Amino acid sequence: MFLGVDTGGTFTDFVYYSAQGLRFHKVLSTPTDPSLAIEQGIAEMGLQADQLHLVHGSTVATNAVLERKGVKTLFVTNAGFEDLLTIGRQTRAELYQLCPELPEQWLGRDDCVGLAGRIDAAGAPAEPLDHGALKQLCGYIRAGNYDAVAICMLFSFLNPAHEREVAAALPEHLFASASHQVLAEYREYERAATTFLNAYVGPLVQRYLRRLQHVLSPKYLYVMHSAGGVMQAEAAGEHAVRLLLSGPAGGLVAAGRVGRQLHTDQLLTFDMGGTSTDVALMCGEPLMTTEGKLAGLPVSLPMLDIHTIGAGGGSQAWIDEAGLPQVGPQSAGAFPGPVCYGRGGEEVTVTDANLLLGRIPADARLAGSLPLDRQAAAEAFERYGRALGLTPLQAARAVIDIAEEHMAGALRVVSVQKGYDPGDFSLLCFGGAGGLHACALAEKLSMRKVIIPVASGAFSALGMLAGRQQSEFSRTRCMDAAHADTVVQLTSLFGELSDEARQQMPGLPLLFERRVDMRYAGQGFHLLISLPDGNEPVDIALLLERFARAHRQAYGHLLDRPVEVITVRLTACVDRTELAWPTMQSVGGEALPSTFTDVYAAVGDVATAMSVPAYQRSALLPGMQLTGPALVLEDIATTWLPAGWQLQLSPHGHLLLETLV
């Protein structure tokens, strides 16, 4: 019996998979202690925790970074490099801003210690570590009451001896994060920032997972990580920085399964929850990146290429200093939540706007049990609209327009800005609020097809059940791709990484996926290029061909320069059976609405109500067709089908929407 649990900022989603099929559930999140919502959901579903194979998408690490609530951390590096995290790369986000905002200082000067000793650029010891300073370091840690230590020494990716010496000298109870174990790659700043974040949130994640294990005592406990796989809870506590995209990654894993079912390779994914919206582009499989960033700090671990903005159902509307309406990134979250939740929220949100306009019926129950107060939303929009000279319905329409423009912009970032035409893709939409805006976003991007998958309101939790156990390994070695020894070096490095994977994942039937970072000589950036999987010999000609294709796709041109291989990457994974949806029996005829509800349109100063049929998704079968305007209702999500769109079901129960224009 498998249970996928995705903890979001507003709702915690559950998907239970057994021999009897799939069950879905949703409860309000408990931000102060996410395990409380998990315990509540398991109890409401009538499940026995000790019989569950539990796969969890956790926001503990992400929230600790975003809210600056990590543990007190000491940064240890080489003497003279104590300001590494403060100086960074000296790049300016706004090149022509005369008075730019200074980058945030995560650590005070007293929280950074430099030790004498040096490994040179060839990986050879140039100067031994100062062992007297090592002894003083332990006293400094006790006096400063530090909870964690991040260790990042120069060239440790070539020779980690000095980092190991430092780690061995630290008190055993202290959480220590060494860069050669977190990210064995070049670029000191990125390696230091990733190692620091791992130490900053590691003790919190460890305590949370241990408490979850103690409270629930599931049969197995796995955690989704940012690269789209799952890892054992013990490993997740040690490598907490790998969990920063834990929840959104599940949605992309499930999206890949749906794409294969529908024989659709080109997908733009759109995940709109209560707090944020996550978007990504897929060409068969989710794209990977090693250039992630969170709260201004680089996270250079392999992760799914997901772009996130603060636009969700709970995003609050406000008026800026120029008197212009804005939406987000602030969110009402689970508590107090939108005004219509009746829990003390005062600022209008996107959910309030959808309720007032009738896209969410007034008698709907969010998560199957939470009643909504449309009158409270109307009164709040009366106050908000008065400040803008708008009626409540006009103000609600404006809030939705602004939010949808933000979301369309995010979709352009992952498509147009990377050389892809959105019109060549289908929009795969999920998240509790996604179906309310999917068609409008498709129209903005000239997309003709939208897919609302089974369990769209708990889709990330479903993806966690489909995630395979996997770990990521890497080594930086700079090689000329045309050099005669490059094939030998690559083969040797992949062999070393395979041995390391077998040591960390003993007894498992491992499959290996191979990638390399490549660039033209002199470039400051790289592209991630895949090799054939398994143990096939390295084919340099194939690598160069794939690099040229990727460079032209990303930048529109090629260069007459030597090509370098910078970093070798290996994904070790355990294959698992595909998560299967049962095929539904096709029928003919038209679907019958369960009810009719009023949906409002604000045109100029006139508010027009139209009676719209509402259908229960559970009553729809393949072969039935709907034509908008219409609503499709379920406990965990709502889909708005506007005029000019039609809908039919796939044999597996996915909603397939297509524009008629």
TrEMBL record:
GO terms for molecular function: 5-oxoprolinase (ATP-hydrolyzing) activity. One of its GO terms (biological process) is glutathione metabolic process. Coiled coil: none annotated. Residues 3-173 form the Hydantoinase/oxoprolinase N-terminal domain. This is Hydantoinase/oxoprolinase family protein. It holds the Pfam family Hydantoinase_A. The lineage of its organism: Bacteria, Pseudomonadati, Pseudomonadota, Candidatius Mariprofundia, Mariprofundales. InterPro entries: Hydant_A_N, Hydantoinase_A, Oxoprolinase-like. Residues 191-469 form the Hydantoinase A/oxoprolinase domain. GO terms for cellular component: cytosol.
